[in-house]
Specification:
Length: 182
């Protein structure tokens, strides 16, 4: 049986060079479309009493879409991210459960387009190690599946056969390598 553990001690800041925040969504019922946000930040704080908190954000306009028209629609469109009014995607944990077998369940509030909804992500953690340069590092890898309509990302187009062009379910993936602050 897995039991709760406290593998983190202190405060950790995101290493953006070794971290990512991505989403994938089925396009035309054919394949998974994936995109990432390049400008991300996160902070994990573990108190002596065992409380762990994670807060992070991604700048919407840092999305990895290169086509100018498609990018403008997704970033600024009122049926997608609406970044002119809501430039950040924000996550604030409400509960973090870590187990002896390196499992992680992170619950919290995900804010997109100014709307917050509860989300639970599952995955794994890697406890603190010291890298070759004497820096203490840890990591979290998390996944959650959400319905994009809950945040007003409601663009849709019917295909000739009546199916939806873009799936409502979106998989979010966060790979966070964290550096311990002194």
């Amino acid at each position: 049986m897995a039991i709760a553990v406290q593998p983190f001690d202190g405060t950790y800041q995101l290493d953006p060079n070794h971290s990512s925040f991505e989403f994938s969504v089925t396009h035309l019922g054919l394949s998974k479309y994936r995109a990432a946000f390049g400008d991300i930040d996160a902070r994990l704080a573990a108190d002596a009493d065992g409380t762990i908190a994670l807060v992070g954000h991604a700048r919407v306009d840092s999305i990895s879409i290169t086509d100018p028209d498609f990018r403008a629609h997704v970033v600024h469109g009122s049926d997608f991210f609406g970044a002119d009014d809501h430039p950040l995607i924000v996550f604030r944990s409400t509960d973090i459960e870590l187990t002896e077998d390196h499992g992680a369940v992170v619950s919290g509030e995900l804010e997109i387009r100014g709307t917050s909804r509860s989300v639970t992500a599952t995955g794994s953690y890697s406890p603190t190690i010291t890298d070759p340069f004497g820096v203490s590092r840890a990591a979290l890898e998390l996944r959650a599946t959400v319905d994009r309509r809950e945040w007003g990302l409601d663009w849709q187009l019917a295909l000739p056969d009546g199916r939806d062009a873009l799936a409502w379910e979106v998989e979010l993936t966060a790979v966070l390598e964290l550096v311990k602050e002194d």
